[in-house]
Write a structure and sequence with these properties.
By secondary structure, this protein is an alpha+beta fold. The chain is about 35% helix and about 15% strand.
């Protein structure tokens, strides 16, 4: 794989630099090597990346194998199974019962019986400065969050007013919004990439004069989740980069200035971010996300001790502020980052396979098919 040619004025180029650093520092941490050279990024982002690399390394060194086959599990799911049908979920649970239950509060990575990565659990991955950044950005989204809440619409539990509650922080507005520099509006996905014209568009939440500033306010968090994905699932990371580059070229050639501007300032390799504030979420899946991919959830805010209950795997994760959790898909304030496969498909980005634990170090060191010859991997990575 050749190095992606990201324009130097794109926010994504900073994410790529930070991601190379985090991947290299993880490698150094795991092998007890000296720190890698400081990358050309701002001090706040650098400190956040250092903390992230430490927690990722701790998780890698604490693998937990579960007695489940991820491929067979996903094959047993209906294509549109949302996780809200109790009868279907009970049948699935009986077919794939967890062999034990576990309460977890330390960094770890869960893998299936075939060595595929199910989940990364990273408590403390977000430092205080990034938390404050996310808090300020969420406060700035107050009007959009308020307008997102609906009433009486069947099936729209994600934005139904009964799903939200008032929090202890008067500055935070309950609500749920999706933000994307370029995606298909609901019901307008194009199957295949031979569309007659360029049809994706900027999400409604990022249209207008406020859109650019809103994207910029999310940049440090976007950099951090991109760097985490570079370590967790290198192939998916590069698929995300490739997709954004293709979308940017298509938008430029089509004269779509709004998409060009949002992509210019978009720092994440994920193409969608979902911001949820003071929402109660039932157990559910997102059938639009591919099982081979990862969603990354980051949580901030002040709230009573919480637990993320993943019943189908028998896991209970302590879900405090500043935690980061990455799922193999179809599983306070939460920012969830994900990729829409329909967008990747539109620009003909190949779909990556499942991430494998036994290929973790190989993925860091040789993602471009070069053999790691020296320790100076920061300079050698694409």
């Amino acid at each position: 794989m050749s190095a992606p040619q990201i324009p130097s004025d794109w926010a994504l180029s900073i994410s790529h630099t930070a991601s190379k650093f985090v991947a290299s520092q993880c490698f150094a941490n795991i092998h007890n090597l000296p720190p890698v050279p400081t990358p050309p990024i701002d001090l706040i982002t650098y400190m956040a990346c250092c903390q992230l690399s430490r927690v990722l390394s701790q998780a890698y060194l604490n693998p937990i194998r579960l007695d489940i086959d991820l491929i067979r599990y996903n094959e047993a799911l209906d294509k549109h199974q949302s996780g809200l049908n109790e009868k279907l979920e009970r049948t699935l649970f009986e077919k794939f019962p967890p062999s034990f239950e576990m309460i977890v509060d330390v960094p770890c990575v869960f893998i299936d019986a075939g060595g595929r990565v199910l989940l990364w659990y990273l408590p403390g991955a977000i430092n205080d400065m990034i938390r404050d950044d996310m808090y300020a950005a969420t406060v700035g989204m107050g009007d959009l969050l308020k307008k997102s809440i609906t009433a009486g619409k069947a099936g729209l539990w994600r934005t139904d007013h009964l799903s939200f509650h008032e929090g202890v922080d008067e500055w935070l507005t309950p609500g749920c919004i999706n933000l994307s520099p370029c995606w298909f509006q609901q019901g307008h996905e194009v199957l295949g990439h031979a569309a007659p014209k360029f049809s994706p568009e900027v999400s409604a939440t990022l249209k207008g004069d406020h859109g650019t500033q809103l994207v910029i306010s999310m940049n440090r968090s976007a950099i951090l989740v991109s760097a985490a994905l570079r370590v967790m699932h290198p192939a998916l990371y590069f698929a995300g980069v490739d997709t954004l580059l293709k979308l940017g070229r298509c938008a430029r050639d089509s004269g779509l200035e709004d998409i060009c501007d949002r992509i210019l300032h978009w720092a994440s390799v994920f193409n969608v971010a979902s911001i949820m504030c003071n929402r109660r979420s039932p157990p559910h899946r997102d059938p639009k996300c591919r099982p081979e991919a990862f969603d990354i959830m980051t949580s901030i805010g002040v709230y009573h001790p919480a637990v993320m209950n993943i019943e189908n795997f028998g896991l209970k994760l302590r879900y405090d502020s500043c935690v980061m959790v990455a799922f193999s898909c179809r599983l306070a304030v939460v920012w969830a980052w994900f990729m829409r496969d329909s967008v990747h498909n539109f620009v003909a980005t190949p779909r990556p396979d499942f991430a494998r634990y036994d290929c973790f170090l190989e993925g860091i060191a040789t993602i471009d098919n070069r053999v790691l010859a020296t320790y100076h991997i920061y300079a050698g990575l694409p």
